[in-house]
Design brief:
The protein has two domains: 2-62 and 290-444, endopeptidase domain like (from Nostoc punctiforme) (endopeptidase fold (from Nostoc punctiforme), Alpha-Beta Complex); 63-287, no CATH class. Helices cover 24% and strands 27% of the residues. The chain is built from twelve helices and 20 strands. A six-stranded antiparallel beta sheet has the order 15-20-16-17-18-19. Strands 6-5-4-1-7 form a five-stranded antiparallel beta sheet, with no helix packed on it. A hairpin with a 2-residue loop joins β16 (370-374) and β17 (377-385). α5 (91-103) runs antiparallel to α6 (118-126). The radius of gyration is 22 Å and the shape is globular. The chain starts with a helix and ends in a 6-residue tail after the last strand.
């Protein structure tokens, strides 16, 4: 497998040589205008399919060989927690948030200052003296969240400041889909929280959201082909629901849809697999053909969804949306934007002027297969609108500067299509604060025709 993945990287480089509310947020006193009031959102079609149909909609972006290599990479990454024998993260990494928040406890979910002893009490409950106490494979039997400390309570910075408060809970690492393989390497003193690794991050989850797996379970799960959920809120047995990005073993397929195996809690704390049938509109065998049309079909099902830092409250931020979007196509992406920006060959735009950046994007980026990156944010290039590069992204807001010098945010707060000059007509969005000024690189996930 390593030789095949190395071959894929060499092929891609050769080609390019020729790239997270359940509770209401605190109002921002420095916000300007209303949510979404920028010209781009009034004039640009908020459908990625509109762009796909203008860009060879059915032309594969990956050759059959490249698609197979990508799926191998996806599978190896997805099942990594079941093949490791020791933690991939150190005690120092686990202790870091406790140390940080003992010094700076911040604010709770009701925007009240936290007790200075809060993080120290949490650290005692984590009982890390015997770290790592466990070494067991498990699986997520519910949709859940990875937390920096073993608590569902929030830790916000000062909510009166722009870009702080809900949804920016700094204990929220990531949402975790039902069926995600896990490696459990510690537990709290009372066993109510487990410290786990997922394929893409680590942290604490509530113990009832995971079930341990044995060798027979892992063999059955890993031996099957994979199926991907391609619509949000797909009902599953037991009152569960699956979202785009959820990957499950494929048990069979027919003209009506696919049968998948869904992990559930079983006797003795071990997981069991239960078979259920999903319609062709809800799930599909992996990998889906990576064409602009098919990517757009999945992307449009997330269009307009509310922004959620780190997957908070079952919502998505910029990187979780991009990661979930490409999962059905067998393209593995890391969890955060900076890591995603390194997920393929890259082209730096750092030394270019805004106009030069736009020229480079138009001439080099491949619609639906190129990520546009700036620090803290990732976007998918979908093509041109009136001669300007257009991107699909889940964005919180645009940085503003008020007349009296106060910082602010023009909140968009959802998945949208914009140019990289979104908000240019708003006086408070100064030229240096436009997205195009902050864009640093392109990342190429695929190129068509190879």
């Amino acid at each position: 497998m390593n030789r095949r993945l190395s071959a894929l990287v060499l092929v891609l480089f050769a080609i390019l040589a020729g790239c997270a509310p359940k509770t209401a947020p605190t109002p921002q006193p420095t916000a300007v205008r209303g949510q979404g009031e920028v010209e781009d959102l009034r004039v640009i079609p908020q459908k990625t399919m509109w762009f796909a149909e203008k860009n060879s909609p059915d032309k594969p972006l990956l050759s059959k060989e490249q698609a197979a290599m990508r799926l191998d990479e996806f599978t190896a990454s997805q099942f990594k927690p079941w093949t490791q024998e020791k933690p991939g993260y150190s005690l120092k990494s686990v202790l870091e948030p406790f140390a940080q928040y003992k010094k700076s406890p911040g604010f709770d979910e009701k925007n009240r200052p936290r007790d200075p002893a809060w993080a120290a009490n949490m650290e005692r409950e984590a009982d890390l003296r015997g770290f790592p106490r466990l070494a067991r494979q498990a699986v997520a039997v519910h949709n859940t969240s990875i937390r920096a400390m073993p608590t569902a309570g929030a830790r916000f910075n000062d909510p009166s400041q722009p870009g702080e408060g809900y949804p920016f809970d700094y204990l929220q690492h990531s949402a975790v889909h039902l069926g995600t393989p896990l490696y459990v390497f510690h537990a709290t003193r009372d066993g109510s929280w487990l410290l786990v690794e997922t394929p893409y991050t680590f942290g604490w989850i509530p113990a009832p959201d995971a079930a341990y797996v044995d060798e027979a379970f892992m063999r059955e799960f890993m031996a099957a082909p994979l199926a991907a959920v391609i619509r949000d809120n797909v009902p599953l047995p037991g009152g569960q629901a699956a979202d785009i990005g959820c990957v499950l073993p494929l048990a069979g397929k027919s003209g009506q849809g696919v049968s998948v195996l869904v992990p559930a809690p079983g006797p003795g704390g071990l997981a069991v697999l239960r078979q259920t049938t999903l319609t062709a509109q809800d799930a599909a065998p992996m990998p889906l053909a990576a064409t602009p049309r098919q990517i757009a079909q999945v992307a449009d099902r997330m269009m307009g969804q509310t922004y959620g830092w780190g997957g908070i409250d079952d919502k998505r931020d910029c990187s979780s949306m991009v990661r979930d979007l490409f999962a059905p196509f067998g393209i593995y992406l890391p969890r955060n934007s900076s890591a995603q920006a390194k997920a393929g060959p890259t082209m730096s735009l750092e030394e270019l002027t805004p106009a030069q950046k736009e020229d480079a994007i138009r001439s080099r980026a491949v619609p639906f297969a190129t990520l546009v990156w700036m620090r803290g944010h990732i976007m998918l290039y979908v093509g041109e609108f009136q001669g300007k590069p257009a991107v699909y992204h889940n964005i919180w807001g645009l940085r503003t500067l008020m007349a009296d010098g106060r910082e602010g945010r023009l909140v968009l707060g959802r998945a949208v299509i914009t140019t990289l000059r979104a908000g240019e007509e708003v006086p408070e969005v100064k030229p240096e604060r436009l997205l195009i000024n902050r864009v640093l690189a392109l990342t190429f996930l695929a190129r068509p025709g190879y």
